[in-house]
Amino acid sequence: MAVTVAAKEFFKWNDHLLERLEPSEKQQETMQESTYIQNIDQSVTQNGVTVTLIDSVQDQGFLYAFFEVKTDDNISMTDNTSFEEMTHFKIDGKEVYADDDNRFGSLSTGVSQDNLLNYEQDSAHSKYFTAGISYDSDYDLSNKTVEITLKNLTEEGDYDKTVITDGTWDFKWT
């Protein structure tokens, strides 16, 4: 318990990230010497929706970005709320998943609600999301500038998505 508390203070991990990742004591010690976990705490508000990039966790093969989304009282979210797309993911200004040969590498990506973190939170106006990006290159993201752009908050139906709030939320960190 003392190590977890100390690691939380050292890394500035929030409770949600600790709950989501459940790092062992050894992992906490290893991360203590790295820049693989960062407390970002950047917020962007558009059209009554505030998206906050809370933390990012990264290594040579993946990056997870943890977001909290809060809406005004007139905008409700459900378990089917998501973003229409992640329009940009760049590292040092280079688009990661461009269609041409000028891309960073192949990857899988997605933005979805973090079911583990939302499990204890039954709110139509506050949800947690995770953007997961994995790629096949062995590339260290430490000290690199990362950019992510999310577009349009949507509600997914049986056959289509409906935009519930137009917007573009841009995040950039090193």
UniProtKB/TrEMBL annotation:
Q: Which domain of life is it from?
A: Bacteria
Which InterPro entries does this chain map to? DUF4179 (IPR025436)
What name has this protein been given in UniProt?
A: DUF4179 domain-containing protein
Provide the species name: Blautia obeum ATCC 29174
Which stretches make up the DUF4179 domain? 20-70
